[in-house]
Design goal:
Order of helices and strands: HHHHHHHH
CATH superfamily of the largest domain: Tetracycline Repressor, domain 2
CATH topology of the largest domain: Tetracycline Repressor, domain 2
Helix content: 55-70%
Number of domains: 2
Largest sheet: none
CATH architecture of the largest domain: Orthogonal Bundle
Number of helices: 8
Strand content: under 5%
Structural class: mainly alpha
CATH class of the largest domain: Mainly Alpha
Oligomer: single chain
Distance between the termini: 91 Å
Shape: elongated
Radius of gyration: 26 Å
Length: about 210
Amino acid sequence: MLPGCRKFRKVRMPKKKLPPSEPVRKPRADAIRNRERILEIAKEVFTRDGAAASLDDIARRSGIGNATLYRHFPTRDELIEAVYRSEVEKLANAGARLAATLPPLEALRAWMLLFIDHVARKMLIVPAMDTVAGGSTRLIMGSRGLIRTAFADLALRAIASGDLRRDIDPNDLIRALVGIFHTGYEPGWEQTARRLVDILIAGSRPTSQ
């Protein structure tokens, strides 16, 4: 040590205690019921009235006040998006439910038929969806991941069970399924789509079956 220099000791500063974080509050049961009620009624009103649907009418038919509706969905766009997102989530969640209760191929077929119902409902609310920023195309594109995942899980399960050929690519199946809906603007398209589902499945079975 040089003359005149003092040896300094490292002083440890006391750690600051962070304030305890507040527990995340779960939505109340009545708030959840109100939200689900709003979405169900909104789907009906958007289906009936399209772009002319009134949020006041939705609130009245839901049996809640306007303030409650706007608390859940501050803007019209948010409500429309939530309605469509809810329908997509129901379809996606149905995949796991069907897989738990039905054999692989039956579960896949049942989900594909539900997909047809989903598309039919979607076509009814497209006029309302087209009023949001980016239009219905943005909403539909944003939901593809959930739908593809649900379908792929069911298709892979059917392939693993031997019900479908092992060289089948789930992506090819979903493309073919989406192609079915190009007939969606023709009368009786739903019956045609259901028949095509069975044709698509039959063509994907192992040749020995």
